[in-house]
TrEMBL record:
EC annotation from Swiss-Prot or TrEMBL: 3.5.4.26
Gene Ontology terms: biological process: riboflavin biosynthetic process
Needed co-factor(s): Zn(2+)
This protein's name: Riboflavin biosynthesis protein PYRD, chloroplastic
Gene source species: Corchorus olitorius
Broad class of enzyme this protein falls into: hydrolase
Pathway named in the protein's UniProt entry: Cofactor biosynthesis; riboflavin biosynthesis; 5-amino-6-(D-ribitylamino)uracil from GTP: step 2/4
A Pfam family that the UniProt record links to this protein: dCMP_cyt_deam_1
A single GO molecular function term of this UniProt record: diaminohydroxyphosphoribosylaminopyrimidine deaminase activity
Organism domain of life: Eukaryota
PANTHER family (alphabetical): CYTOSINE DEAMINASE FAMILY MEMBER (PTHR11079), RIBOFLAVIN BIOSYNTHESIS PROTEIN PYRD, CHLOROPLASTIC (PTHR11079:SF162)
Endpoints of the signal sequence: none
Amino acid sequence: MEDKSVDDGYYIRKCVELARTAIGCTSPNPMVGCIIVKDGKIVGKGFHPKAGQPHAEVFALRDAGDQAENATAYVSLEPCNHYGRTPPCSEALIKAKVKRVVVGMVDPNPIVASKGVERLREAGIDVTVGVEEELCKRLIEAFAHQMLTGKPFVTLRYSLSVNGRILDQLGKGVAEKGGYYSKLLQEYDAIIVSGSLTEKFISQEPGANQPLQIVIAGNPHQLPAVTEEAFKMIVFADKEIATESDLAQKGIEAVVSDQINLTSILEYCKRQGFCSVLLDMRGSFGDLEGLLREAIEQKVLQKIVMEVLPFWDESSGGESLVALNSLVKRLEVKNLRSRSSNESIVLE
Ligand code: AOF
Ligand code: ZN
């Protein structure tokens, strides 16, 4: 007897993989992948590349052409049933006469929320919902959080040496360009850092997402060099350092205030329509300690990504994990997963 659940899971996992082609590029929309299967063969594939462009289903149906008739469409997210920037995918699937639709998860967007599934069923299509649901939820965790709370999804990140020191990605040069760290940065709409990152870590490949760097400057040394202005950047600076017009003259966009705080930074992110923000504790932990404290007090952290690098840090500087843990221990951390890459072990 055919084991349907094994097949369905396989194709939804493929959809998730396909969706991730557009990592960091779809915000404020979710990443979505769609695969059309007929007689056990993939006849069409599509993913959502960018907000404003067609949805995954539209690309997959185009790719499948006439072969979509009587086929099964696999989608990591419920097909939409509304006119947004693009027309409803439910109607496109009905028009293409697909026989069955397998959906990874229901769309958390209240405008959709099961209406796409209902519309397909009304049209006589056999719909299965909730296949590889956890995987699909993780794929769009930032989108879902933003949709349901109106606030950006905030992740805390740090990397550790084997002897428990928080590593400075720039100074030690242990993480390589194109490695895990660079890829992680690409996933976010914005990253909060003390001191700007360099081309070493920000991808400049065509089509890759370049997150906005929110540079925290509490003292003049933390002001970014103007040569780095090719990267998208905004500086949140202490008023003791400079005025906004001083910085503007140097070509640096800045928000200058009495006290740099996370609330105003996140408000700024919200106004920009950002779904995801990374609080990146590179090296000088002290520079961002105040923001981290605020993040913990206000319970805005949704996720922690900790990377352990195969590196013994002999330097006298640098912060120990103990200092960070004294703050982080106040968090309720659950659902940790680990995975290893060539260069490190990642816990998230
Ligand atoms: C789908 N397939 O590939 C995506 C969906 O403004 P629009 O038309 O792009 O609609 C955006 C909403 O559509 C978005 O908030 C989410 O609910 C859904 N995204 N739906 O059927 C897709 N990206
Ligand atoms: Zn759609």
